[in-house]
Amino acid sequence: MERLRLRATGSFFRYCSNRSLFDRRLNINSVNSIHNSTSGYAHGFGKNCRDFHFFSDNHKWNVQTCFGFVRYQGETFRDSTEKGLLEKTRRFQYRGFGSLAAKVQRNPSFSTLNSDDISYFKEILGEKGVIEDEEWLATANTDWMHKYKGSSKLLLQPRSTEEVSQILKYCNSRCLAVVPQGGNTGLVGGSVPVFDEVIVNMSLMNNIISFDKVSGILVCEGGCILENLITFLDNQGFIMPLDLGAKGSCQIGGNVSTNAGGLRLVRYGSLHGNVLGLEVVLADGNVIDMLGTLRKDNTGYDLKHLFIGSEGSLGIVSKKLLMEAKRKLGEILSAFEFLDSKSLDLVLNHLDGVRNPLPPTLHKFYILIETTGSDEPYDRQKLEGFLLHAMEAGLISDGALAQDINQASSFWRIREGIPEALMKAGAVYKYDLSLPVEKMYDLVEEMRTRLSDSANVVGYGHLGDGNLHLNISTAQYDDGILTQIEPFVYEWTSKHRGSISAEHGLGLMKANEIFYSKPTATVSLMASIKKMLDPKGILNPYKVLPHSLSS
User: Fold this and answer.
1) What is the CATH number of the domain that holds 278?
2) What tens-digit pLDDT sequence spans the chain (551 residues)?
3) Which residue intervals define the domain FAD-binding PCMH-type in the entry (predicted)?
4) CATH number for the domain including 448?
5) Which domain, by its residues, includes 238?
């Protein structure tokens, strides 16, 4: 049993013991895995959860789905086991990218693309693999938030590891800067050019190579869309240990390169624990095969961990990715999400088809909980025991129980729809922070006091692993507001021994802020590794490392 103590005055949660039959992703009418509510709800915890049964691999699965809003008063515990307005950029001797830290000059050592370069790429990729179309490039040069925009004139689409190798070997010899790109769903400017870097898009490398049902080992290419992998494994009776709101667009290579956390980290841990091996192409074109299938191998350095979370600055995750898929067995918590009342208000006011599952009573916090289980008596006992204790302790103020897949999907629509609602509300400053759980919401409240009525400060995130998504919503981007936010948000986080990037990475936005989370000696070592693996600095320049060390 894991015990978690919180300081809070309110909360909302869903508690469900389930298998993928009622997973929010399996609605065929969904768009990018975001679903609308299509039916009503059962209110209160006095009713029993509805039971569902189905068979998979000669195993009978017993499913219970429940959803609830609770209120915490004093200390509580749990039992265990993010298109908006284009930001105006200043143009002096540098470009401004919405963060006080992210102002950089183009590295003069990088070459400029010419016709000979394009001809070479067409020789190895063919005409279809070399993209110069302005409309296509406009999309690839711009991040999902329309906050960061590069000026690349070329996008390459390799179909194999060998083609990636030839691209990087040539770019390295010409000193052409490169930005690896997957689904381009990042939020810190890491997947788009800063200037005129060549974009290497991995979308065509999207094959599942193999899957072993005995060992649960999946081998796939780096361009596979996460949702496709999730569906594939669901159909095999397995569960993907990674799940994100952007799963309909993001690619597994990008997930690995950013060490994406997501909604299931509390159950399955980070990708450092789930990735068994990688194949990576270095800046000079050398292919590093680290795809060993052994679960135990203590023969030297485990180099794959250098590339997990390196944000494409050390190499490109290429043809194969080895991941351990977790069989859907055992009762355990798989998601523990929270959002505040302002988050819920944004979703209800800006997204069509979203309903509040509860009567219109104001709660300060809401929590969404999901559990995955296979033993009906034990699952029911665990669930009912938790709810009974919460009711007797006066922790629950109201709740709703999902009766079917549509209701379960609509519950998740609220949590996953927050980033979309924020974009529709206007300009938004996003901060992805890791903090001690008991301190998570203190920063939200201090930021509200600091900004007063000039902004709508919203807090939500992954409560199970202390990941706060702090969002400051304003009518338009404003330098005055930004100076109120930064560097205060980073200083506050560092003071409380947190991380300035829990799962989104550093990208361009936070590269110069790394010292708030890492000691100088550690950052210097990171720069040394970068220099060793990418001597000319062509891989995703201006990102991750501070510009004083990377230029």
Assistant:
1) 3.30.465.10
2) 222 222 222 223 333 333 232 232 333 233 332 222 222 232 333 333 333 333 333 332 333 333 444 332 232 223 333 333 233 322 222 333 344 334 789 999 999 999 999 999 999 999 999 999 999 999 999 998 888 999 999 999 999 999 999 999 999 999 999 999 999 999 889 999 999 999 999 999 999 999 888 668 889 999 999 999 999 998 998 888 898 888 999 999 999 999 888 888 877 888 888 888 889 999 999 898 888 654 544 435 577 888 898 888 888 888 474 455 444 433 456 777 889 999 999 999 999 999 888 777 778 888 887 766 667 567 667 666 766 777 777 777 777 767 777 888 898 899 999 999 999 999 999 999 988 888 889 999 999 999 999 999 999 998 777 889 999 999 999 999 999 999 999 999 999 988 898 888 888 888 899 899 888 877 887 888 889 999 999 999 999 899 888 76
3) 148-327
4) 3.40.462.10
5) 208-322
Strand partners, 69: 398
DSSP letters spanning 102-153:
-EE---TTS----HHHHHHHHHHH-GGGEE--HHHHHHHTB-TTS--B----
Based on the fold, state whether residues 274 and 358 are members of the same structural domain: no
Residue 237, domain member (yes or no): yes
Q: Which two tokens stand for residue 533?
A: 């693996």
Within this chain, do residues 427 and 360 fall inside the same structural domain, yes or no?
A: yes
Number of domains in the chain: 2
3-state secondary structure of 478: coil
Report the relative pairing of strands 74-76 and 95-96 from DSSP bridges. Answer: unpaired
State whether 287 and 354 are in the same domain.
no
Verify that 315 and 370 share a domain, yes or no. Answer: no
**Quick one: 278 and 409 in the same domain?**
no
Residue 218 to residue 455: CA distance in whole angstroms = 45
Distance CA 215, CA 363 (A): 45
Report which residue type is found at 223.
G
Query: How is 109-123 classified by DSSP, letter by letter?
Result: TS----HHHHHHHHH
- Give the Cβ contact number of residue 286 at 10 Å: 14
Q: Which residues contact 175 (CB under 8 A, 6 or more apart)?
A: 109, 110, 111, 536, 538
429's enclosing H/E stretch is strand 427-434
**Scanning the structure block, which residue is given the tokens 């990377």?**
550
Tokens of residue 214, six digits: 């005995």
The rounded Cα 487 to chain-centroid distance in angstroms is 23
Taken as a whole, the chain contains a residue count of 551
> Are 404 and 295 part of one and the same domain?
no
Give the DSSP per-residue string, 191-209.
SS-SSSPEEEE-TT---EE
In a domain, 291, yes or no: yes
Sequence-separated (6 or more) residues with CB below 8 Å from residue 7: 74, 75, 438
